[in-house]
Design brief:
single chain, 310 residues, alpha/beta, TIM Barrel, 42% helix, binds NADP nicotinamide-adenine-dinucleotide phosphate
Length: 310
């Protein structure tokens, strides 16, 4: 795989940090502390989006990371706007100003836009790349067929998709069926969001009245609303207690062992919350523990039938 690097040429650590909470549940002091702790842990890849916290996430990241060429800044465009050439240009120009960065290291399409021809979208991305405004191209929340359709168009324009950003954690494993195989086949880096299931896998929702996203955001409550997911979180917490480490740490360690090629995008609202996720990057699970955790969630069925005959 042609690995993505910083502008200074350094390879990326096997994890990133996401700033979706900055300017929302994480204030400036919390953001500064988490940024410093990520750098101490060797994380140089920071993920944001044009959409997050009405631009405050990008602005706060810009204040901290600015134009540093030893840091890798990814943002996303076209979530609530069609992915037209004009919208992409406007979005990227504003993101660059907020980020205080002439060159965006990685620009994702935030989701698949069925209303704009992919040829137009990718021609715009290719010309942003040729102009040196963005370095790498990514897509987020795409199905595998959408990735391959886009990759074919990108190839015709002399470029390629470098990164995928799907959801992935112990209770969201759909990515295993088609996206991870596509990424391996196409040499695309996968950066997975929500490694803790939005907080579910910390175990805190086993107690009624827990403070957090699943309690106050209906989208997350629905995303993680199935009973078996909460049972898996309880099972994970029990295994973690047996190991004497937080469930958060074990959730990250499981993801690293389950899909070592995937870079989880860690996130938190405070340095205290972040610490156990960072610890998960250094925890190695033994085979029995890994298998016990994996068994807490159903393995998604394969993409094709007749697999039992293979
Ligand atoms: N492409 C996309 O569509 C997309 C979507 C979502 C996220 N992302 C990216 O991926 C990053 C990570 O996603 P995510 O925030 O969903 O990740 P996550 O790791 O699944 O959830 C992080 C949340 O879990 C809770 N948490 C974390 N550590 C905790 C602890 N020790 N104790 C208790 N609660 C804890 C906090 O939420 P509360 O305090 O609110 O409970 C925190 O904000 C984001 O920052 C963003 O950059 C991308």
């Amino acid at each position: 795989m042609t690995a993505m690097t910083t502008q200074g040429g350094a390879p990326l650590a096997p994890a990133a940090y996401g700033t979706m909470q900055w300017g929302g549940t994480a204030d400036r002091a919390a953001a500064q502390a988490m940024f410093a702790n990520c750098l101490d842990a060797g994380i140089t890849h920071f993920d944001t989006a044009h959409l997050y916290t009405e631009g405050r996430s990008e602005e706060m990241l810009g204040e901290l990371a600015g134009a540093r060429d030893d840091l890798f800044v990814a943002t996303k465009a076209a979530y609530d706007q069609p992915a037209t050439a004009a919208n992409l240009q406007t979005s990227v120009d504003l993101s660059r100003r907020r980020l205080q960065r002439d060159v965006i290291d990685l620009l994702y399409l935030h989701r698949f836009d069925p209303t704009t021809p992919l040829d137009q979208t990718f021609a715009a991305l290719a010309s942003l790349q040729q102009a040196g405004t963005i370095r790498y191209i990514g897509v987020s929340n795409f199905a595998a067929w959408q990735v391959m359709k886009a990759q074919g168009i990108a190839a015709g324009l002399g470029t390629r998709i470098d990164a995928l950003q799907p959801m992935m954690n112990l209770v969201k494993r759909q990515v295993e069926v088609e996206l991870l195989p596509v990424a391996a086949d196409q040499d695309i880096q996968v950066c997975a969001y929500s490694p803790l299931g939005g907080g579910l896998l910390t175990g805190k929702y086993a107690v009624t009245g827990a403070d957090g996203r699943l309690a106050f955001d209906d989208r997350y409550a629905a995303r993680y609303g199935q009973g078996w997911m909460h049972e898996a979180a309880v099972g994970l917490a029990e295994i973690a207690a047996g190991l004497g480490v937080p469930a958060t740490t074990v959730a990250v360690a499981w993801l690293r062992r389950h899909a070592p090629q995937v870079h989880p995008i860690l996130s938190a609202r405070s340095a205290d919350q972040l610490a156990p996720s960072l610890a998960g990057l250094d925890l190695t699970l033994d085979a029995a523990t890994y298998e016990a955790i994996t068994a807490l969630s159903p393995t998604p069925p394969p993409a094709t039938d007749r697999i039992e005959e293979a």
